[in-house]
Amino acid sequence: MGGLPAALATSPESPTTPAASARATIKASAVLKTLRVRAEVTSGYSRDYFHHWIDADHDGCDTRKEVLLAEARTSPSRYGSCSLSGGSWWSAYDGVTTTDSSTFDIDHFVPLSEAWGSGAWRWSYSTREAFANDLGFSSSLIAVSASSNRSKSDRDPAEWLPPNTNYWCTYATTWIAVKYRWSLSIDRAEKLKLHSLVVNCGNPRVTLPPRAPIVNDQSDPSGTTGGSTSGGTGSGSGGLDPHFTYCYEAKSHGYGPYQRGIDPEYDWYRDGDNDGTVCE
Ligand SMILES: [Ca+2]
Ligand SMILES: [Ca+2]
Q1: CA–centroid distance, residue 63 to ligand 1 (Å)
Q2: Å from CA of 123 to ligand 2 middle
Q3: Predicted confidence (pLDDT) at residue 130 exceeds the cutoff of 50
Q4: How far does the centroid of ligand 1 lie from the alpha carbon of residue 2, in Å?
Q5: Per-residue pLDDT tens over the stretch 132-171
Q6: How many other β-carbons are positioned within 10 Å of the β-carbon of residue 6?
Q7: In the chain, where the domains are located
Q8: What mean pLDDT is predicted for residues 93-97?
Q9: Which residues surround ligand 1, an ion (CB under 5 A)?
Q10: Could you tell me if 207 and 13 are in contact, meaning their C-beta atoms sit under 8 angstroms apart?
Q11: CB atoms < 10 A from the CB of 194, how many?
């Protein structure tokens, strides 16, 4: 069922835990506002930096097969370590149905290179691996026809939308949710497009996915330390945002939020509720 419009409304992970049940729904536009606007880092990407598909739970099924099993419209039978036989799948991007899973790709909803340019360039190897194999949020990975996945390639919603226009609303809100989950930035054109998509579909409420833990590398693996400063929101010195005395000033100028362990700007402000985020 993954990739269907219900994906955002139903949390895939232990919905009975207090944390999950307490997770509020929030207007899509409000989630969009939490995403930092940044020009993308355009250098240094390699697909090899995102190790996949792994078998995180060692049950014999790698991430690709886990998604195929989770999203099948008709369940395949499983034999051997994790061979699949039979089953059917539906591609939300183009409405194609198949009984041959080899014609379907597992798409990283936010493509790997898009993630790289939106902040993953700073991540540790294990964080990139976790992103590339994310089964902790049912919308992070989606089984779609290989042709629609190739058509999408590494493009964001300002550059590509699926041919199935009925899916655009879910596509936009899912994109926003995955970027939120992984604390990834958006570029200006992407924000404009997402905003208009969300407005056009009535600004639905979405359930926030849990934030994924992010570990950054000490060094800059892409060698582009200045990459995050150009573009949308202006820049201070040394690749950082301007330093204000108070968060409300930063926010009124369009800066923030900042996260502990990710954004150096975090240290400038007081994290009153100690939730790891300031200026939210
Ligand atoms: Ca597995
Ligand atoms: Ca983008």
Answers
A1: 6
A2: 17
A3: yes
A4: 17
A5: 999 999 999 999 999 999 999 999 999 999 999 999 999 9
A6: 11
A7: 5-214+225-233, 240-280
A8: 98
A9: 55, 57, 59, 61
A10: no
A11: 25
